[in-house]
Write a structure and sequence with these properties.
The protein is of the alpha/beta class and 304 residues long. It is built from ten helices and eleven strands. The mean pLDDT is 97.
């Protein structure tokens, strides 16, 4: 597997992101290894929040959430998916599969870090991957926060705006990562922050991950990931530990999925599910402080 590793100097002077990365080697599924990057911040003995980002962002997206949670005594593990952030980037889109991304995150979180009693916080692909992990390794998790995410099986069509995004990524000769993130925000974005989202991708060749991810979302019932996702839905239908949806009020891509999750997951019943105001798809960027406060309160509540 041919890979690209973003030079460290690309990540100099990131705004509001003082944490240094840690690294781990995981099997690439092709006979080699990949280096994955993650931030491990907050008290080592504190309750653990696993923060999973999506397409086409990286752990920088969670900077304000991390600041709020660590201030509340939470240990935050915010990783960079393979192909994103400081993690190694396979150069062929075909090297990316849904199953491989689930396995890469599992290997880092459980084999390398041995995380237990975890609260998942997953947005976008961070939810697609994270909910699979919750379903397949329920003994590792005590709570879930699903934020602007879902778990498609291909049995229902994706929203038209998602298909517009899918097609735009597929047709773009130059994929403008910062612009994609900014387009998913409701409050605007400074040039400095936009540059931080561009930082992991200095060449078009390095963007195979962002180009691949829309193609990995199951959009038909015979998708390779559909059987595992259906099994995950069945397992989530029996999940009785606390399950919170924290969706924003201005995300046309995932809006409405929170109601489905609230009805389907027993652990979601009876909870006060917040709506994050004036926030788009990337609610961590628009309202990271608010999301961090929601997660901190949720993690401090009795788990039953």
């Amino acid at each position: 597997m041919e890979t690209f590793r973003t030079p460290d100097e690309r990540f100099a002077d990131l705004p509001d992101f003082p944490w240094q990365p840690s690294y781990a080697e995981v099997a690439d599924g092709d006979g080699g290894t990949l280096r994955m990057a993650y931030v491990d911040a907050g008290p080592a003995g504190g309750p653990v929040a696993l923060l999973l980002h999506g397409e086409p962002s990286w752990s920088f997206l969670y900077r304000h959430v991390i600041a709020g949670l660590t201030g509340a005594g939470v240990r935050c593990v915010a990783l960079d998916l393979v192909g994103f952030g400081r993690s190694d980037k396979p150069l062929a889109t075909g090297d990316h599969t849904f199953a491989r991304h689930v396995e890469w995150v599992r290997a880092l979180a459980f084999d390398h870090l041995d995380l237990r009693e975890v609260t998942l916080v997953g947005q976008d692909w961070g939810g697609l991957i994270g909910l699979r992990l919750v379903a397949e390794h329920p003994d590792r998790f005590v709570r879930v926060v699903a934020a602007n995410t879902g778990l498609p099986t291909g049995d229902f069509d994706m929203p038209e705006i998602w298909w517009m995004f899918h097609d735009a990524v597929a047709k773009a000769e130059v994929l403008d990562i910062g612009r994609l993130v900014a387009a998913g925000c409701a409050r605007g974005m400074s040039d400095e922050v936009r540059a931080a989202y561009d930082a992991p991708f200095p060449t078009e060749q390095s963007k195979a991950g962002p180009r691949a991810m829309p193609t990995l979302v199951p959009t038909r019932p015979d998708d390779p990931a559909t059987p595992a996702n259906r099994r995950a839905w069945a397992a989530l239908g029996e999940w009785d530990r606390p399950f919170l949806t924290a969706f924003s009020d201005s995300d046309p891509i995932t809006g409405g999925m929170e109601t489905i999750l609230q009805r389907h997951v027993p652990g979601a019943h009876g909870l006060g599910h917040p709506t994050i105001a004036n926030a788009g798809h990337f609610l961590q960027e628009d309202a990271g402080d608010a999301l961090g406060s929601v997660v901190a309160r949720f993690m401090s509540a009795p788990s039953g």
